[in-house]
Amino acid sequence: MKKENHQLLLLLIMMYSGSHFAWSQERTFLKNDISVGYGIGTSNEILDLAEDTFSSLFTLGNYRVDRDYTGGFFLSYKRQVSKRIKVGGSFVYEYSSGTTFRKEDNTFKETGEVSANNYTIAAEGNYLYLNHTKFQLYSGIGAGVSFAKEKYSPNEPSSGSDDDSLSHFNFHLNAIGLRYGNKLGVFAEAGFGYKGIINMGASYRF
Predict the structure, then answer these.
(1) CA 69 – CA 194 distance, rounded (Å)
(2) 3-state DSSP helix/strand/coil percent for the chain, to nearest 5?
């Protein structure tokens, strides 16, 4: 009877050790995270809105721009350097197009078309509040540079088109984010910056 108890105890120890080793190995090697996502309400959109509002006020309401945005598409990579910290970076792309108007005789008339390709490259870091195998809860911050290639095409060909290249500092504050899934998972985040007020997507850990 004592021998059987010893064998049972040994079997339990081996099962625990094996499962603990597998868990440790998984936690050790799933350090890399590649994600793709989409966000709305980006800082580039808000910056354009502020500039357009200022232009309208500066011209006493005689100038207006109506813009449409694709939203921000991004590719990110992060590496877990400790139990709570991830570091990496992101590339974000967003396209916008719109129509410019000028007020003449109390009527707004179209004066041209404007478009812009926006690119953002940024370094990022996340802090994990919860870091389970299939669920993570975290916040994060990022900072980098946005580049914009803008084009203005007036309705009157004699005016000629105008191309411009701009760059400015940009950031992203991820107030709260969650991820569900082991190797392949989905995530959603809420915050403010170049990824949008709300963004979501899929990620793969290895």
Answers:
(1) 13
(2) 25, 60, 15
**Average confidence (pLDDT) over 179-196:** 98
| Contacts of residue 91, Cβ cutoff 8 Å, sequence gap at least 6 | 74, 75, 76, 119, 120, 121
Which residues share a beta bridge with 174? 140, 191
Distance from CA of residue 74 to its chain's centroid?
6
Question: Which residues are CB-neighbours of 166 under 8 A, at least 6 positions away?
Answer: 147, 148, 150
In 3D, which of 65, 82, 77 has the Cα closest to residue 36? 77
Distance CA 190, CA 46 (A): 16
Residue 122 in contact with residue 143, Cβ under 8 Å? yes
Tens digits of residue pLDDT in 74-106: 999 999 999 999 999 999 999 999 999 988 888
Lowest average pLDDT, out of 51-55, 69-73, 78-82, 157-161, goes to 157-161
Torsion over CA: 39, 43, 44, 46 (sign): positive
CB contact at 8 A, 121 and 104 = no
| Long-range CB pairs of 161-170, under 8 A, 24+ apart, other chains included | 168/47, 169/143, 169/144, 169/145, 170/43, 170/44, 170/120, 170/122, 170/143, 170/144, 170/145, 170/146, 170/194
Q: What percent of the chain has pLDDT over 70?
A: 84
165-182 pLDDT tens trace:
999 999 999 999 999 999
